[in-house]
Write a structure and sequence with these properties.
heterotrimer; A mainly alpha; B mainly alpha; C alpha+beta; A: globular; B: MetI-like fold; globular
Chain lengths: 282, 293, 345
Amino acid sequence: MVENRPFLNFLTHVALITGVLFLCFPVWMALVASTHTPEALSKAPIPLWFGGEAIANYSELLTGGVSAAGGVPVSTMMWNSLWMALGITAGKIVVSILAAFAIVYFKFPFRMGFFWMIFITLMLPVEVRILPTFDVIARLEMLNTWAGLTIPLMASATATFLFRQFFLTIPDELVEAARIDRAGPLRFFWDILLPLSRTNIAALFIILFIFGWNQYLWPLLITTEQDLYTIVMGIQRMANAGESLPIWHLVMGTAILALLPPVLVVVGMQKLFVRGLVETEK
Amino acid sequence: MQKRVIFQNLWLPYLLVLPQIIITLVFFIWPSWQALTSSLYIEDAFGFSKQFVWFQNYSELFTNPAYLKSFWTTLVFGVSVTFLAMSIALLLAVAANRVIKSATGYRTLLIWPYAVAPALAGVIWYFLLNPSIGIVSYWLESVGVEWNHYVNGGQALLLVIVASAWKQISYNFLFFLAGLQSIPKSLLEAAAIDKAGPIRRFWTITFPLLSPTTFFLLIVNLVFAFFDTFALIHATTNGGPADATSVLVFRVYNSGFVGQDYGSSAAQSVVLMGLVVVITFIQFRYVERRVQY
Amino acid sequence: MAAVELENVGKTYPGNVKAVEGANFAIENGEFIVLVGPSGCGKSTILRMIAGLETITEGNVHIGGSVVNALEPGERDIAMVFQNYALYPHMSVYNNMAYGLKNSGMRRNEIRQRIDKAASTLQLEPYLTRKPSQLSGGQRQRVAMGRAIVREPKVFLFDEPLSNLDAKLRTHMRSELKSLHTDLGATFIFVTHDQVEAMSLADRIVIMNEGRIEQIGTPMELYDRPSTRFVAEFIGAPPMNLFDLETVTAQEFAKLAGKKPGEAETLGLRPEAFEVVTGRAKGIIAQVGMREVLGSETMLHLGFADGQSATMRLSSQFASQLFDEIKITVRPENACWFDENGALI
């Protein structure tokens, strides 16, 4: 920094390390707990280091599931989460990029009307319209379907605005050169706009995948059949098993499995992820 | 708003916006409209008849002590989470900004919790604070603090506050760090020459220059606390004990799905909608002049 | 049949803003036409209307004999080189040049042939696989030209293509453009705000001001006989000296220049129109102020008794022998008389 103050530097590192510990400790404990027998976890203080049951516990989770969760193998739930996340992500990107393209590059009646309609969705998160939306899904007979799980979440404004913002920065002359090169709007979109949007799409993919994977309320409402449960919502049934105590080593194991994919994505693609976060908030 | 160069097609743009518009209409606008209208009715338990009652649902809400308590709980919850998550994040960001070389390393270690779903964060803290075997409650008891969030409403609220804040720190940290890094070093150097020590430099120069970021995060954190925390509460305390953690958004779900009171749930939805509108309005009106990253 | 013909072409924007009004001229096959004028005069608008990038609100544009008003740019058999090159950043040089041809359904080996030919003309062979971001400004400009050449269009359109290059490169590219024009024998329509560029490149110049065409002619026609004051001031550097005929100095010059037309209000004299006289020859006394020695030429800034001033161009050898007070006269054939509306008499 500006001057050299060793004491302050020391404090700085202390603060940072404390912060890191605070953030990592819970997940650390979850990981540790998932490798122990139920007995080891049955009275305080529970161990702070790993036990030997990692393989046993995780294979039980992945194959058998916990009876409190209705015996759904965690692996099934993870697959459901994966398909849901991928569906939402891909769907959102496609829907938004097409809409942004139309709004930026064409002039047509109701253009601004559509723009504001999309904008309004920013003010209508699912939690605000729970019951009626559920009603619509039920009426369309989309309960317990993959479509019901993914389609309603595909029309958010943030992705559309991100693409719109990006398209506005593309020089006009590029479009003019393309028109002279006999490229109609669709060819322009495919040959030129799309390749130039690659980084934005990648960054958005990460953010949306995390968003999709971590969905809770929506899968909770839509899925009444167990084999469609996703892992993030499924954990609730395991932790709140009614009368019986939660089977902690399995619950924690499930939590670890549930948070692993998004965390790996964030850590592995940190730069793109940060870019995606910053861009969508502009 | 519009580029100077546009294509001339007549029907193509409609086709392109169609998917988004259809989904928006069917799953956003129509249900919201339904919420608005059904908030003006009372339905009987079997859904056979409806009675138009004007704003009776609303008046019942605002005279219902449980609802008003829920308002209060939400406020306490929201403010606490926001304050906790933002101040810790600011501290960490300032610290990380000082160690420029290792900043990216620390950043990696500090931003991954963003990827953890609120429900999972809740369940894990639920485990840590479990009265019988939780490690943190064990430590608390060894310093004389009795912990049982199954019984103690205040402690249950504290649990969800801490879990929510834990999850939000990463997000705030990221934006604070970016904001700090965009402040020109020359300003701080000039202040140092003007005999300002690090603490004074922070409060008189850094913090004011950070205000767009701070304001922006304030809004985001409040929105997160009001709406995105349903999962966390539902997965852990389920609104209890005795409605101690029953925030507004949880109540909407509870009244509608568990209590089957559609009119009231719809009215609550509308109130929440109003809240979002106000917050979004503030956001766009005042936060638009933001630091560009 | 003219290559391009503008028939009373005009462009009015919403809100009644007239960018171009009453443009009427014909361009022959193989001509190098330059549209020149200050910013906002409408020259780019005319170019873009020919290209099809702006709609034509009044009049007709003919290319190759047929009216093209309703045709898309890709259908008009034109090619355009943009000021900012407009190269597709994610495509290689080869693909940039091939794009338009691919969209026309041309076969791959024919595309290859055309690109190879253009690449050798423009010396782009070593760069065919590179992306635009890996090229210098001059190289990108050549790729933009290559993209135009391979289309083998009826008309080439240039929208201030040299404005973004540094001075030395600009001069070099000017001569390259000129030889390219000779090689291809094609019709070039070139827009610039730089009158030096216009003078050096054009077969004919169309000079515009505030949406209207002021004059069309060869460079020397515009130089020697500018049809309006505006043209006189725009063309030539340093600009023509203009004297209000109410002043004493101007009247003295008018006498020296011979007959003065009745309606004349302004007298225009180019810097090289003056001659130094000695002894008892008739002339006007002038004080020499600043001397700009530009090499083989010198510019003298002259001041007259009644406060008027003028610029005079001489060979440096001669100028160095002059004292600070000289006597000058004018050659009658170099005098330009302008009436009250600024038109040449």
